[in-house]
Sequence to fold (230 residues):
Amino acid sequence: MKQFNHVGLLKPIEMDTVTIDGKRYYVTPTGFKHPSVTTVIGNNSRKQKVLSEWRRRVGKEKAQQISTRSANRGTKYHKIVEDYFNNELVIENYKDTPLPVIMFHSAVEILNRINNIYLQEAALYSDTLKIAGRVDCIAEFDGELSIIDFKTSAKIKKEEHLYDYYVQECAYACMLQEIYNLKVKKLVTIVSCEDGDCQVSIQPPKKEYLIRLQEYIQEYKEKNARDTGG
Fold:
């Protein structure tokens, strides 16, 4: 297996999380409580409408089963990838979860395009945007510094279903620049699928993603204020 180089230039940030009104917040080193970028983006009205319609279509119990299975699959897959990048992967340790192993093997050729890893599962925040989160990977992809996000799916995703991933990755790019003064060249989304396919999408950090992010942040603030009577 490939041996990955780790670039020890960035000191990881430690942040605790708290739950407020059922939503995750990060306590930043600067003393603020910023909402999770995943929560902010996930609570936009368009996405909530799509999810609501899907739950109604498949049924509440079935939707919960699918969501739980998907979350468990993703957690295990992420752990395999993390071990791989840390040069510590012992695939036999995952023999009880064969599906994530198969999905990892289908993605390994693309994962091998990553090297010179700066941070993994790293906490980031922005006091400017007033959000925080945890990025999967900051590393070079095909030799260029990138925000890299690992996803799992039952099958290849349509392009319109990837858009909010780009928005979230743009948020991490903004946080990285604000904290470490580093600019990324690429936003990389790698989707490993149950059917053996692996989808990779490479985007530049476009202004339109930042604009959409700011819209989501504003919508979240307004909804939160209504819910809390603020």
User: Anything to note?
Assistant: Residues 16-228 form a domain with the Lambda Exonuclease; Chain A fold (CATH 3.90.320).
